[in-house]
Write a structure and sequence with these properties.
heterodimer, A: mainly alpha, MetI-like fold, B: about 350 residues, alpha/beta, eleven-stranded mixed sheet
């Protein structure tokens, strides 16, 4: 009845259009902007391409150091969130039974509130007048409120791990649910202990989900700026905050674009190396 | 049945024609009365300034005009929006950021003869809205910047801008998140000429604020953030506008607003009209109403800022406000430094300096 070709285009044109107009074109514009030496004048006029901003950025070591640090922070956060999400996903897949659906909804409830609201709520926990400090003072363990929970890098890491755990659990859960249960029976019949069974069967088969979870957390976290802005204080800022500053506080789009391009390319490079190292294709097959 | 229908239709048409004729005559004879004037205006303003209290005179005089608000987060944000082709008819920048709008051809000269309230604005304020000898902006709100401190935590008081860099307040300082603001503070402390900061001076300023970061708890971006930090006792010493001071006084928090020996800083907010707006007439009416007394009183009483209409300022009786504006101190204005206009080079160099401070190890 339907022309297969027509159906294909009818289904793929809207998303392609969306991505093209709102993702590819802005990305190309940003790449073009990063080669513009002056921020004055008409926005859409032609300009002689210049690598001035890249040159400036390479000579200013500060930004590179912060980018390395942000990548390291993202690595820690992605690893911790994935490790902590695994037991959650395992429980939902194999132990929750009939209640699995209910627990899944519980896991997703935080997404129904705004991200900003959740981080603000966390501030109520960690602040100097917050719940943790109030409890410690009440318990006479300290006399002055501790400031080490908020406005530093640790606060950023703690907050982001918390925020990402439910997200990271989803791809792992999907991978665990795909495992054929008869494999466990076979392993048990062959005399494998529960630990061995997990180590040799469950974990390897769920690795694609684990890697998906890891990268899903790692990539956006490298460029994070909202969380450091809210809980990071003056010492916990990340690379994304500097990019945001150049766009909103400095009115310097060309330099901000150059900073963004550097982050984009470095992240892509890191992911490419990682994929190479773990041989993703073999894992998925 | 059908006949009545026809008759009704005919009657309807006649009424319509008569109404149209009457309206046409009316329009030709006199101008549309203010309460019948229709149209749409878009204002690009800061969060909070969209509240009807801040344009109440316009709303009551022209109830049928629709006013839409867009919100800008900072001067740079408003500037980049306008530069990117924002279609707002009116926008609200602050001293320091005015020259760019003129240089980039984004602002229309204002015909002040159309403003009934213009005479109530003092000459010094009018000058602030003049660039290259032309009146491009209408001064509207103004206030001080100084050091705000908790009197219970800092009983010895603060008498210099250097307090913001003093390690003895480690972990309890909050600086405004702004490069030009940091340059201003350093210039006051060291007696640099703010309009001609040299490369060496800028390097010294960068070093100074990088050191300061270890003592700074967080850089504040919006006043509520700062007020919150002062209320809960995290922040003892901060760079602040007097709005925060008045808010905290109102809440009974023990705070004082320093009179630093280097002098306070002062800023003025202005309104400009976008070049090429299709609603010039309405925009001028809006600005005129912005200068009117009821609106001005709200600026003073609700936001604790000064207003460019002198009659409004002369009418202040509230003691807290008198204290906030230092109205009792006749020498305060002579001890105040107005924020000069930045050049594009200064803006880029100073904001990059600040980004490096924030990114420093």
């Amino acid at each position: 009845m339907f022309d297969r070709r027509a159906t294909f285009w009818a289904l793929s044109l809207p998303p392609l259009l969306w991505l093209g107009v709102l993702f590819v074109i802005p990305l190309l514009l940003m790449a073009a902007f990063s080669t513009r030496a002056e921020s004055g004048g008409e926005l859409l006029r032609l300009w002689a391409p210049s690598l001035k901003h890249y040159d400036d950025l390479f000579t200013t070591g500060t930004y590179w150091r912060l980018l390395r640090l942000s990548a390291l922070i993202a690595l820690v956060i992605a690893a911790m969130a994935t490790v902590m999400a695994y037991p959650l996903a395992y429980f939902l897949a194999f132990r929750a039974g009939r209640r699995a659906g209910f627990y899944l909804v519980l896991l997703l409830v935080p997404f129904w509130t705004s991200y900003l609201l959740r981080v603000m709520a966390l501030k109520l926990m960690l602040g100097s007048n917050g719940v943790i400090n109030a409890f410690l003072i009440y318990a006479s363990l300290i006399t002055e409120p501790l400031t080490l929970f908020l406005y530093n890098r640790a606060a950023v890491v703690i907050t982001l791990i918390y925020v990402w755990i439910p997200f990271a659990a989803l791809p792992i859960l999907a991978a665990l649910q795909r495992i054929d249960l008869s494999l466990f029976e076979a392993a048990a019949d062959l005399g494998a202990t529960p630990f061995r069974q997990f180590w040799r069967v469950t974990l390897p088969l769920s690795l694609p989900g684990v890697l998906a979870a890891f990268f899903m957390v790692f990539i956006p976290t490298v460029g994070e700026y909202v969380t450091p802005l809210l809980v990071g204080g003056s010492q916990g800022l990340m690379y994304g905050n500097i990019i945001q500053d150049f766009f909103t506080k400095a009115a310097n789009w060309p330099l901000g674009s150059a900073l963004s391009m550097i982050m984009l390319l470095s992240t892509l490079l890191l992911v490419a190396i990682a994929v190479r190292l773990v041989d993703l294709r073999k894992l998925i097959e | 049945m059908k006949r009545t229908h026809h008759r009704l239709a005919a009657l309807g048409s006649i009424t319509l024609i008569i109404t149209l004729l009457l309206t046409a005559c009316g329009a030709a004879a006199t101008e549309v009365p203010p309460d019948q004037l229709t149209g749409t205006l878009t204002v690009l303003d800061w969060a909070g300034y969209d509240a009807p209290d801040f344009w109440t005179d316009f709303q009551t005089t022209y109830p049928k005009v629709t006013v839409n608000f867009e919100i800008g987060a900072s001067d740079a944000d408003i500037y980049t929006k306008m530069k990117a082709g924002d279609q707002a008819d009116i926008f609200h920048p602050y001293t320091g950021w005015l020259q760019f709008y003129v240089d980039e051809g984004l602002v229309e000269e204002i015909d002040t003869s159309k403003l009934k309230n213009w005479d109530k604005v003092p000459e010094e304020f009018k000058k602030i809205g003049q660039i290259n000898g032309k009146q491009y902006f209408i001064p509207w709100d103004w206030g001080f910047t100084s050091i705000l401190y908790r009197t219970d935590k800092v009983p010895e008081g603060v008498n210099s801008w250097a307090a913001l860099l003093d390690p003895k307040f480690k972990g309890h300082i909050s600086m405004w998140d702004d490069g030009p603001g940091a340059v201003t503070v350093s210039s006051y402390i060291h007696g640099y000429d703010e309009t001609a900061v040299t490369a060496e001076q800028l390097a010294a300023i960068k070093e100074e604020w990088t050191q300061q970061r270890d003592s700074n708890l967080f850089y504040w971006a919006g006043e509520p953030e700062l007020v919150d930090g002062m209320v809960n006792g995290d922040i003892w010493v901060a760079y602040a506008w007097q709005g925060a001071y008045a808010t905290l006084l109102g809440q009974g928090v023990p705070v004082a607003y320093a009179n630093p020996k280097e002098g306070r800083n002062s800023w003025v907010g202005v309104y400009g009209i976008r070049k090429g707006t299709a609603s010039m007439d309405l925009a001028l009416k809006f600005l005129d109403a912005k200068l009117a007394t009821a609106t001005g009183n709200n600026v003073v009483n609700l936001f604790y800022y000064g207003h460019s209409n002198q009659e409004v300022m002369n009418g202040i009786t509230d003691e807290t406000l008198k204290q906030a504006f230092s109205i009792g101190d006749p020498s305060i204005l002579s001890k105040t430094n107005f924020t000069p206009n930045l050049t594009a080079e200064q803006r880029d160099a100073w904001t990059a300096m600040w980004a490096e401070v924030k990114a420093a190890p």
